[in-house]
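Please decode residue identities from the backbone states below.
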């Protein structure tokens, strides 16, 4: 729902509520306009403050995230916020400014408090209903967007199947033809063929063995090394037990590809550093490279944009991605928790 439309709905609802309450009070007990206006002003100001405290702060931060203790504490505080606000305006400010108060001068604060606390409960309930209804509409909208994106992705995948399979078969043929001529070339074609097979492999849950993802990274590095021959420097380390772990397919390669594309790979003093570490069930992946200042295009590219979206869909509340450019160095850190 657009913010302007939401604001309009809120203004209309408050206008109807205040107008109806004013007419009802005036008909049942005619009161001088000034007094009634001022009392209604403080009463509805206190109600609005309570409503938006719950609607804009409490429910989005604590109810949505299922943080029970902060939620309960804030809901206990909300009636006191209503009572304190009203007491400050009606019993402290009005006698000084206008010479009258809502309650008698001998009214104790404890009586005022107990007489007003319950008045906040209906507005707290209304704010909960309004927020939950809007949250339901928001979730439905997000679901429709995700469903449309999934459909488009499936269509794009089906359209792409013809060319990759053709390329895979062609690579196998080229390997057979190249082997008698150059084993080095044939080995490169074979690795490229294996990488193509890995990319085409599809699992129902979209995940693969982490060991295979590591092998894919090694093959990718090997193919790049052929391009630069002996002028290619990469430090790739794998720490911890990767056997038996599963990870989303091709979730690590965009960071390595980005480092090779935008970084300096021919400096032996500053090699591209790639480290994959398993700590219990948590995966930590770091890629660090010196930025190539001679390259005109310093954008991170669509690859990292897509991987951020994939991580949000595949590992919600289960990942942390940090990308930083510290002067001459680019660094990407990814943590996947509870694989």
């Amino acid at each position: 729902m657009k913010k302007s439309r939401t604001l309009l709905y809120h203004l209309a609802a408050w206008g109807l509520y205040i107008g109806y309450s004013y007419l009802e009070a005036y008909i049942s007990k005619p009161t001088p306009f000034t007094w009634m206006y001022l009392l209604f002003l403080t009463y509805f100001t206190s109600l609005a403050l309570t409503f938006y405290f719950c609607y804009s702060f409490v429910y989005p931060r604590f109810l949505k995230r299922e943080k029970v203790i902060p939620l309960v504490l804030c809901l206990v505080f909300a009636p006191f916020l209503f009572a304190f606000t009203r007491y400050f305006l009606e019993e402290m400010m009005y006698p000084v400014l206008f010479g009258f108060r809502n309650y008698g001068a001998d009214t104790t604060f404890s009586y005022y408090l107990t007489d007003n606390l319950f008045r906040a409960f209906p507005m707290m309930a209304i704010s909960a209903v309004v927020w939950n209804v809007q949250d339901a509409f928001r979730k439905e909208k997000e679901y429709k967007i995700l469903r449309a994106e999934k459909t488009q992705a499936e269509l794009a995948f089906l359209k792409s199947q013809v060319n990759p399979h053709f390329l895979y078969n062609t690579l196998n043929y080229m390997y057979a033809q190249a082997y008698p001529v150059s084993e080095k070339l044939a080995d490169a074609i074979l690795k490229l063929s294996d990488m193509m097979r890995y990319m085409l492999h599809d699992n129902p849950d979209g995940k693969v063995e982490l060991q295979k993802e590591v092998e894919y990274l090694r093959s990718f590095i090997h193919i790049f090394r052929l391009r630069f021959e002996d002028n290619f420097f990469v430090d790739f380390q794998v720490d911890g037990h990767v056997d038996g772990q599963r990870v989303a397919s091709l979730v690590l390669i965009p960071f390595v590809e980005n480092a090779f594309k935008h970084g300096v790979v021919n400096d032996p003093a500053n090699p591209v550093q790639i480290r994959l570490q398993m700590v219990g069930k948590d995966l930590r992946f770091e890629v660090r490279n010196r930025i190539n200042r001679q390259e005109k295009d310093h954008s991170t590219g669509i690859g990292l944009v897509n991987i951020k979206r994939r991580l949000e869909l595949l590992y919600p509340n289960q990942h942390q991605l940090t990308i930083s450019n510290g002067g001459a160095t680019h660094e990407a850190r990814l943590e996947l928790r509870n694989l």
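Observation: The longest strand covers residues 282-290.
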